Amino acid sequence: MNAGTAVAKFIWAAFGAGGPQRFKIEKRPDMTTVRLLAVTLFAGFTAHVASAHVSIENDKAAVGTSFKAAFKIPHGCKQSPTTKVTVTIPEGIIGVKPMVKPGWTISVTKGDYARAYDFYHGMKLKEGVKEVVWSGGSLESDFYDEFTIVGFVSDAFHAGDTVYFPTRQDCPDGQLIWSEVPPQGKSAHDLEAPAPSLPIVAGEDEHAHHGAPSAGPINAEAAWARATPAGAAVAAAYLTIKNSGAVADRLLSIEVDVVGRAEIHEMAKDGDVMRMREVPNGLDVPAGGSVTLAPGGLHLMFKDLKGPLVEGQSVKGMLKFEKAGSIPIEFRIEAVGASGPGEHSHH
Ligand SMILES: [Cu+2]
């Protein structure tokens, strides 16, 4: 760690506290201290602090995937506190939702997109959020805070593009407008008030990771089931569901080819015996968390099988979530004795 990084971390610790642990600076550091700190910093960071534009925490987003962008507000309008933040969502950024922010009222303006965009397999979005406004709070100029959205990069963008989000800060005593976009091929470095930007990189090919379809913040991975003997009517199936979003979601139901009915089961103690029973109200997937269904615990129960599950094949289905909607899924069929998803050559 060089000195610059160490000081940067110190500044982060001292001034980076947003949200509930907000504190008041009782005494401002005198200018000598500030100058001493400044000369210790490496040049790039000094320049950044000196200009302190509104910027985005993430360093990139990929085509065809969801992203989270935290707009960092480094100061007020001179000394006047920020009481309103307005972020314009550019065309081609779809499925936007602002993250709830205690102490602030959030409003969104929705409208039609220029065209319908693929959101995820089989689903198109024609309209959505075009502008997000946080208001009713007061962010002192001496403090720093972040205003967060989640969204999805449509195929309107390509690797190498940069997306700009014009942003406005309103204060009782003034206004700051961050809307400048550099001319084609030029950097934003010399702009007075650049719009916060997000570089776009190539999307991962979802099909490269089999069984990992993506729909916004919800990802279902490593879906598998054991092969069944001929004539079997039921089978258990397993997978991991990850939620990278800021809000909890819930798996409500499952539909699978060749399966009459699919239920979500948990294991529960009945006296001294572990028995399985249906989870009554769906399966919660916490914000920023995951749920793993694995042998011995939570599982999907496939009932009324219309045919055997054959090792090496796969069965397709659809997971239905309360918020994320329908997500396609493919269960790989493993050996009768398998204890987890894996390569068939291992059995
Ligand atoms: Cu069961």
Q: Tags for this entry?
A:
mainly beta; Immunoglobulin-like; 3 domains; 11-stranded mixed sheet; 5-stranded antiparallel sheet; 23 strands; 9% helix; disordered N terminus; disordered C terminus
Sheet-strand content, in percent, reads: over 45%
SS field, number of helical segments: 3
CATH topology value of the largest domain: Immunoglobulin-like
The CATH first-level class of the largest domain comes to: Mainly Beta
The proportion of residues forming helix, as a percent range, comes to: under 10%
Describe this structure in words.
With 347 residues, the protein is mainly β. It has 3 domains: 1-51, no CATH class; 52-201, Uncharacterised protein YcnI-like PF07987, DUF1775 (Immunoglobulin-like, Sandwich), CATH 2.60.40.2230; 206-346, Immunoglobulin-like, CATH 2.60.40. Helix content is 9%, strand content 47%. The protein contains 3 helices and 23 strands. The protein has helices at 3-15, 31-40, 43-51, and strands at residues 55-56, 61-62, 66-73, 82-88, 93-98, 105-120, 123-139, 145-153, 162-164, 167-171, 174-178, 197-201, 214-215, 218-226, 235-243, 249-256, 259-270, 273-278, 283-285, 290-293, 299-305, 314-321, 325-334. Strands 13, 14, 15, 16, 17, 18, 19, 20, 21, 22 and 23 form an 11-stranded mixed sheet that branches. It has a 5-stranded antiparallel sheet with strand order 6-7-4-10-11, with no helix packed on it. It has a 4-stranded antiparallel sheet with strand order 1-3-8-5, with no helix packed on it. A hairpin with an 8-residue loop joins strand 14 and strand 15 (235-243). The protein is elongated and about 75 Å long. Mean pLDDT is 79; it is low at 1-51, 205-215 and 343-347. The structure holds copper (II) ion.
